Amino acid sequence: MVKDSDPDCRNRCVRDSATRSRPQVPKGERFPKCLRLRKRREFERVFARKCSVAGWCIIVYACENDYGFPRLGVSVSKKCGKSVHRNRWKRLMREVFRRNRGRIRGGVDLVLVPRRGSQPDFALMTQDFRELVRRLVGKLRRS
User: Which domains does the chain have, with CATH numbers?
Assistant: First the structure.
């Protein structure tokens, strides 16, 4: 039986945690800060543009940006449920964007908002996202 005061056990745990590293994510699969909307004024600019489309489970707002690449903002209110539920929505929306950002042409800022009463479903959200972004980009070009 190993006691809590066993110095060898403590040293082993410290040594193991120091040598462990995070798994390496391939460069093309990362979601760096430059691809995120982080400031309030960035979100306000997208909402002020009033260009949006709604699907089965998400609403997407869009606005042009000067960067030449798409960026994502996620807005999930407390009306969607407790923190565990809200965080699941956020994780799924970020993943859908990360996997599909190569299909989005030009500089566009997107804000994703879940629809009230819908459940977070990755397959449905991916399908919705592709169609909604296609419609939004066309809408932005026309206006």
Answer: 29-142 (3.30.230.10)
